Predict the 3D structure of the following.
Amino acid sequence: MSFDKKGQHKETSDLQDKVLFVNRCAKVVKGGRTFSFSALVSVGDGKGRLGIGFGKASDVSDAIRKGTESAMKNVRQYPIGEITIEHEVHGAADGTEVLIKPTEDGTGIIAGSYVRILLEQLGVKNIVAKVLKGRNPANIVRATIAALEQLESAAKAGV
């Protein structure tokens, strides 16, 4: 373990960050337009740990940095098997729905856009996923996390 400048413990891990989406917002003021940026970032280690963060700033690099820091704080462990997940799950968030199904060995990751990135970072090797409703990246990510949390609750319940 190492220490940062403030003397606090700094966790050294093999988490890899990935920028999922960067949004630019324009505000019209008296002198012209001012731009601000928001970044949706995910971090994962490929061994069942995944975190999501959202950062806002007036500069893209600051927004990404804030999103990465937020994602590092929100890292959670999800129960995944060696080949795939244990059972089918369905997640929803703000009108967006995601369906995730286990498959047999050799299938690979069959999923679209943001769901694929999250499942790759989680470390799942064989899985099928489908975004049933919605196109908003933040809601797709939240719905995917909601589905993965159902795996965790079923593992605790002993199903």
Q: What stands out?
A: The mean pLDDT is 88.
